[in-house]
Amino acid sequence: MSIRILYLDDEIQNLNSFKAAFRKTYSVFITDNPEEAIRIIRDEHIQIAIADQRMPEMTGVEFFAKIKEEYPDPVRILLTGYSDLHTVIEAINSGQVFRFIDKPWDEDSVKHAIQSAAQHFETKMELKRKNEELNRALAELDSFVYSISHDVRAPLMAMWGLVNVARMDPDPNLRSELLDYFEQSIQKLDGFLNSLLDFFRNKRLDTVIEEVDLRFLLDDALALHRAHPSNQDVKLQVHIEDQTLFYSDPHRLRLVLGNILTNAFTYQKMNNAEKRIEVSMVADSEKLDFKVSDNGIGIGPEHIPHIFKIFYRADTQSQGAGIGLYVVKEVVEKLKGKIIVESNRNEGSTFHVIIPNHKF
Known about the structure:
single chain, 360 residues, alpha/beta, Rossmann fold, Heat Shock Protein 90, 3 domains, five-stranded parallel β-sheet, five-stranded mixed β-sheet
């Protein structure tokens, strides 16, 4: 990708000379207006900003100071056509300027400054990405500590209490009922631990691209839900169309399919006369287009922006750990895809996933 450079100068001849010299090597944007320069920085994702110090509306240092708070990422280079020690000290102390270039500039010195600035920009962006990853990891760790204390300890305490009750009461009918509650607690704990395993597998395992049997993958995911007694009254409609071979990471696709289908089955309306789930999967040379629609309880508009956050539960009907949709979003992003959610309260939800065909 070409380096994107903004050059601000009040002298049109300088702007034209700069663009003529560097337009074949870089993506060059020129202007003699500071407000226009700010618009270019905003719209064109500028990496390097070059400004002349002596301009009638504002100095180069003043321009850099103006953009610093809102647009801190572009690396700044100041052109100075006269010796002004005060200006140099001011620019360095305010942290605005990466490098100074004397005017009139020569092409080699500018090119060298641009290459150094570009390397500095990439280093700064990588550090920013690492900091964002670290902050997110710390936030996830805080959430894990809370969730483990609640979602692991609560079922364990429940099982402990049930064991004590069973020991004190010899009634075999009561013991049978307690065993049912005990089983439910074990299933809840097992589901939470499986969700944690999915989370860490997605984080740690390398992406492995290979041919994916979409029909087998979908049938395998649906079989787990069809067999469950609580899903026997759900009407299932499936459409699959694989026009060409599809290549992706089958393990991660299984996570996406499994978690979205689990939500569709779990959040059915209990008193609905006809529980319905529609699954559509179409693959071509460019992408996999996968949709799951249901007529369940739906998601309120206030919850939709948050449903992909870790440990977020949008409804009291939720029995899950609040990890599934977080893993779905992480997987889809790792596979360079996108996910769209449409939902209305008491009308159902549609999860629409698009994954690139990584063979082509």
